[in-house]
Amino acid sequence: MTDLSPSGTWNDKIVALPLAEFIGGDTLRFVRHLDASPAAVWELITTPAGWTWCSGMRADLHVGGVFELDFDESQGMRGTITELDPGRRIAMNWIETELSADAPPLDRHHSVLAFDVEPDGNGARLVLTHSHITREDAPGFGAGWHAHLGRLEVALAGESLTSESLYGALLPRYEELVTAAS
């Protein structure tokens, strides 16, 4: 696990975490080694406790169930769970949506998202794979997931993060990653 001790700011440490791999021109893969039990990690990725930066989260944990995130009042994600091995794997289709009633319907970013959790020494290994994404969308997804996984580490440490500036600090790094993979 990356050292996220109090000797620096959480934001700096999250930004310094390893970047995802960009594989095959359409997949981001993050691997994190976390100082928590697999059960604690699973709890955070499948319940609202792990998505506190969103304005809402709901998951019906069965194949065919919904997995919904409201990023703010206007945008969110709606997915259907396609694979579920409780405590170990959850995969879903990923469709970003427009939530505003007075905006034209938005239905884009049809992709696949998977979280895999397994024991790793005294902690857990979390692999997040987001596939079937475009090169154009990859930097934004990379920055967003990088920030979210950092927030999970903060939550597992029993702390909270007050700054919302992580995405902007991470986006240029993911733009470089995708460009280099071209």
Describe it for me?
The protein is an alpha+beta fold. It has one domain: Alpha-D-Glucose-1,6-Bisphosphate, Chain A, domain 4 (2-Layer Sandwich). The protein contains four helices and eight strands, in the order αββαββββββαα. The chain has helices at residues 10-16, 38-46, 138-156, 166-180, and strands at residues 21-23, 27-34, 56-59, 66-70, 75-85, 89-98, 107-120, 123-131. The protein has an eight-stranded antiparallel β-sheet, with helices on one face. A hairpin with a 6-residue loop joins strand 3 and strand 4 (66-70). Helix 1 (10-16) packs across helix 3 (138-156) and helix 3 packs across helix 4 (166-180). The longest helix has 19 residues, at 138-156. The two termini are 30 Å apart.
Shape descriptor reads: globular
Strand order of the largest sheet: 1-2-8-7-6-5-4-3
Main sheet attributes: strand count, strand direction, barrel closure: 8 strands, antiparallel
Instruction: Tell me the number of helical segments per DSSP (H or I, 4 or more residues long).
Output: 4
Rg over C-alpha atoms, rounded to the nearest angstrom: 16 Å
- The CATH topology comes to Alpha-D-Glucose-1,6-Bisphosphate, Chain A, domain 4
Average pLDDT rating: 86
Number of domains: 1
Distance between the termini: 30 Å
Strand content: 35-45%
**What's the assembly state of these chains?**
single chain
Helical proportion, percent range: 25-40%
In CATH, what is the homologous superfamily? START domain
Elements, N to C (H/E): HEEHEEEEEEHH
Low-confidence stretches: 1-7
Class computed from helices, strands and strand pairing? alpha+beta
Task: Please tally the β strands and state the result.
Answer: 8
- The CATH architecture would be 2-Layer Sandwich
So what's the CATH class?
Alpha Beta
